[in-house]
Structures are given as structure tokens and as C-alpha cells.
Amino acid sequence: MTSSTDHTYHNAALPQRFLLCTDLDRTLLPNGEAPESPGARSMFARMVAQPCLSLAYVSGRHLALVEESIQVYGLPQPDWILADVGSSVYQRDAQAWSLLSPWSHHIAADWQGLVAADLAVVLSGLPGLRLQPEDRQNTHKLSYFVSLDVDLPALLRAIDTRLAERALAANLIHSVDELAAVGLLDILPRRASKLYAIEFLMRRQGFTADQTLFAGDSGNDLSVLTSSLPAVLVANAHPDVVELALAEVRRNGMPDRLYVARGGFLGMNGNYSAGILEGMNHFHSEALRVLG
After folding, report:
1. Is there a smaller number of Cβ atoms within 10 Å at the N or the C end of the chain?
2. Other CB atoms within 10 A of residue 101 CB
3. d(CA 127, CA 116)
């Protein structure tokens, strides 16, 4: 794995306002096969406690599972939760979470007022699709398991055809759960994704690209990792994701916007939160002065 050699943002001073967006599973949460560096999560917590720094968790999990992960792993409370692969945006208010209805209304038009259960009926009978459990579905997120040996391009074309026949605009996001050895397919409204949800939050809160950093590890993070936003891939990311992300940012002429953690920073291995810290050091090292 290699990272960009362009250090345009290296050692840049931290802006007065900064937005850190991070995926959870196998990015901030050390729930993959790779080892976690001791003390990395506590250093992450100290970094994000700075008053100038706002924190958003960007996850495929629904709200209750995000809250559960915060408790189980002792994570800092975020200011926002972008859940359900970006199809739900929540804001913290007086220790409670409120759904931002402007985002929900914005993406709802893509499905002509239908919800995920309606799309499941439209797609019923397609070979290779197996619905994920009910607690992984949401109003604007329809999730399937997909066998790793399925003809994925053919399946995606078949899905597109059925949806197009009903003028339903969708965003199909495929990723792989390496631990379970199964493919994951999330079907969202076309204007819903982790990237679009982050951009919505940035516009709403007035953050620029240079005041924002994203951290991720998997296929459903690629829309952000290969965008114009500064981003970091943690060192434990699957090699296929790293290869795809690096190829895309080179193709679109923005390799300086993606950093791939490789370990060694502060003696840590670059996995999970250690990788997020390493990426922050690359783009905005001033943010880490709080660590001493």
C-alpha cells in the first residue's frame, strides 16, 4: 500500500472550525481481524474533544446500532450521525437525536414516495438477492446479502432495469463483509450516499472542503474516499478497496486528497483510530498538539 506523495496539506494549521467525519465498523471500531494499537482510541477521544472540532459518525448502521457501538466501545459522543449509508441524518440536541427532515424529504423524491419495503416487492424474484434482517432496513435503505460468486454486473443491470421501468432513481452500493465472507448491497435513493449526506451537512453547517476530513475503510466509503474531500484510508482497509480508491483519485486528478495510513506514526500500526490520527497528522497536524 502506498499513499500520495503530495503533501499539499501536511502541517497545515487547523482551521478555527473543523469537521471530522468517520466511518465506524473497522475504521473507528476495532472490530476487524487486524490488531488495534493500545491507547489509540483514547488519543482519538482527546483530539476530538477540542472545542473547534465537530464530529460526525458516518455509518451503514441504523441509529440504535450506532448508539450501541458508542456505548460498547466507549466512543466520544458525536455532534451528528449520518446513518443507514447516508440515507438518514441525525443531529444531537439536548442529549437526544433528531432526524433532519430536510434531508429525508430531499432524497424521498427519487423513489416517487415509495419506501424500501415497496422496492423489495419490485425486486422480488431476482436471483442472487437475499434480504438482510429487518433491523438493517430503513425507510430509504433496502439492504441485501449477495453471494461473492454472483455475476454482480448482471445483477446490478437487472436491478437498474426493474427500477427504471417504474421511474425509480436509485444508488446501488456494493461492499464486502470480509469476516462474514458475503457481499452487501444497499439500495438508496439516487441522491443518498455517504458523500451526499456529508456534503449536505457541510452546506448546512458552513464547512468547506479544507475544513473537513473523512476516514473510511470499505467499499461503501468509496464515494467519499474518491471525492474532492480530503480523506484517509486506515491501514487495515482491504487491499482491493485501497487499489480501487487510489486508481480512481489518480484518474480524477486528485491524488493529494487521499492518504493511505501505513503505520509508524507515534509508534502505532495505522489500524482503526490510529489510522485516523495518522491521516489527521498528514492533513492537519496542528490538531494533534493536544496529545502533547
Report:
1. C
2. 10
3. 18
| Separation CA 71–CA 77 (nearest Å) | 9
The CATH class given to the 18-101+192-291 domain equals alpha beta
Q: Is 18 helix (H, G, I), strand (E, B) or coil?
A: strand
Q: Which residue in 12, 61, 23 sits closest to 223, CA to CA?
A: 23
Convert the pLDDT of each residue in 248-284 to its tens digit: 999 999 999 999 999 999 999 999 999 999 999 999 9
- Ranges for all domains in the chain classified under CATH 3.40.50.1000: 18-101+192-291
- Give residue 101's pLDDT band: very low, low, confident or very high (50, 70, 90): very high
CATH 3.90.1070.10, the chain: domain bounds: 105-189
C-alpha cell at 152: 454482480
8 Å CB contact between 160 and 168: no
Dihedral, CA of residue 137, residue 143, residue 147 and residue 152, to nearest 10: 180
